[in-house]
Amino acid sequence: MNKIRAGALFIVIVMALVIGILCASIMTISLYHQMHVSDNRLYTKLDDNVNSAVNMLLSDRVALYRDTSYVIDLFKLEEDSVFITRKRWGILESASVSAFSRGKKISVDFLYGYELSSKDSTVLYVPDLGRPLSFSGTTVIIGNCKLPASGVKRGNIEGEYFSGTQLVQGKVSTSTKNLPAIQEKTLTRLLSLLKGDSTSMYRRIGKLVYTLDTDTLINKFSDTTLVLLSQGTGLGGKYLEGNIIIYAVDKIEIPQNLTLKDVLIIAPYIRIKNNVQGVFQAFASDSMIVEENVVCNYPSVLGLMKTDFHVQQPYIKTGSNFKFSGIIFSYQNVSDLSQTLLSMGEKSEISGEIYANGFLELKQGTVVKGQVTCSKFYLKTKKAIYENNLLDITIDKTALSPYFVGSSLLISNTPKKIIKWLER
Amino acid sequence: MAGKITNSIRKLKASSLIEITVAMVIITFIFTMAFSIYVRVIASDLSISEFKMVKKLDQLSWESKRDKRFISEDIIENNYTIEKKITTDSSNSKLLLMELTAYDQDQKIVAQKKELIIE
User: Fold this and answer.
1) Count of A–B CB contacts within 8 Å?
2) What is the ipTM of this complex?
């Protein structure tokens, strides 16, 4: 027969131990759950505060100077502080916003620009310099135009007559004698960087990098700018992203196997080799050659700036099948015969804006989804050179993505919009 | 036969009265403590309905921005009242302050959300 022990105290102690362990488990789970809920609420609040700060920045509620950091109490309750820094990035603007509380922080970096005017705005602007425009071949212009008083007529270039029924599919009004004004402030810093013949200026704006030890270099916009002093070549096989300026006093070559994302390229002469793909802003003062099959994704910028009489004719020339999304512009603050030239290769596809303070050549088969502003059109065929003639060109503003955001290049009262989130 | 009867009588060891009393005290204390912990955990935790309200405010904020419905209004949601208050920023007319507050039946604030938005 088995003996049954009747130790009530022993059984109770075992039960107490089991219940104690259960209680401790419940308390621990509850504690972690509460911490999680509390963190979740805090992060939701920080996220709201970041969004509020971004909206505050985009609406110009407070004057925020560039290259200066601000700590702002959003609702004046001393519990919603945000940290904001903004700076020019090429012809776009970048900003870093952080919201912080109780040791927790949420940060976002983004590029922003200006919304394009509403859809009925100008697709083609050519100032009234006394010469009419002439369209030949299968030229199609969709949108409202501001053209010289002498108007637009059907043309014939080397046997290619205008084949359409309507010269402009939109309203045509008379332009003034000048191009739309440019925001020189936007270009001031770029001009000084292009003119900079010493590295002292670059030392002031960022940290100089003489040699790249690694294949990948990513620099956040909330960090100090890295200025990569290029020797012209030697960038092959690298990946560069973010707050990086590639600068050379004479020339820079972008090889096919260099991957660029959001970086600036500044040099008097820039050559972008065949089949390069990337997102970058390139600024030259002498010339820029873009070879064939190059793809520049949004938001890319190609800029040409003439500030010196000594430069013969600064130009940007692109090869055929050039695909570009962003802004292409030329600027000159000197007036002479050798004006700047933007030349888009055959069958190019441009989405965005072209602003040419000088000549603009759109070669046969070019499609522009966006708007074009230029002093004069230029067209060189095998037989002759034509002025203010377009042959087999499509310019269609309605084909531009509604999400396209422009730059602060032109004076505009349109609202600021986010171009892209860099880090969130 | 008599010997077998004697062998089948078992000796049962019983707990003493003191032992049982101590055990009862301990078990009562343990159960009281466990129950109070359970009640505290349940009470301090975010209730499902409150959590739903937090999410409701997020949804309402998103819908207001999507539909550009920037007007002050009260919304009844089950047993809760959500007060949506839109005020214009004094320094910038394009910027609006949207405050969403959810109250329960006792007018106690359950959830709150505050945002600056562009009109």
Assistant:
1) 92
2) 0.73
